[in-house]
Specification:
This protein is of the alpha+beta class. The protein has 6 helices and 7 strands, in the order E-H-H-H-H-E-E-E-H-E-H-E-E.
């Protein structure tokens, strides 16, 4: 991470609206890959984010002015940590923040198996995950357009 005033901390319940707003911005590029805004991250409600908050950990990446510019979520189940909704505001991408968020969330669940998924069309995401030590282990077609690649790190 290049900017000194950037910090990653656990989100608080009062941060959830700002994180959901960021999610709507950050996932536009994902929707554009399919020419369809009807993807789950763009339809998620505040209540659903609050449920994820209660069930696991949500981290926030905050810039020098206190604005949330990145986030990631994770929860553990049966020895596997499921990582999801890794996002960085489009104006702040390509600065190492996504990788920093990914590595930080892993610290909350040391020495476990981590799993995440993304679209096969999300080449940049796959590259980021592979650089962070994740390896493909499965692919599942959701429909004719959407195929998820599942990745793990042990």
């Amino acid at each position: 991470m290049s900017e000194k005033a950037i910090r990653i901390t656990k989100a608080r319940s009062e941060d959830l609206r700002e994180i959901l707003d960021l999610q709507y911005i950050a996932y536009q590029s994902e929707a554009a890959l399919f020419g369809n805004k009807d993807i789950p991250p763009l339809k998620q409600t505040l209540e659903e984010v609050a449920e994820e908050y209660r069930e696991g950990i949500i981290l926030k990446l905050v810039n020098e002015s206190g604005k949330i510019i990145g986030s990631v979520r994770a929860k553990e189940k049966d020895g596997t940590v499921y990582v999801g909704k890794l996002m960085v505001h489009p104006d702040h991408q390509k600065k190492g923040y996504g990788r920093a968020l990914l590595l930080e969330i892993e610290k909350y669940f040391p020495k476990m198996r981590y799993e995440l998924f993304t679209s096969t069309r999300s080449v940049e995401n796959i590259r980021l995950y592979e650089k962070a030590g994740y390896r493909r282990f499965d692919e599942k077609a959701v429909d004719d357009e959407l195929v998820f690649v599942y990745m793990e790190k042990k």
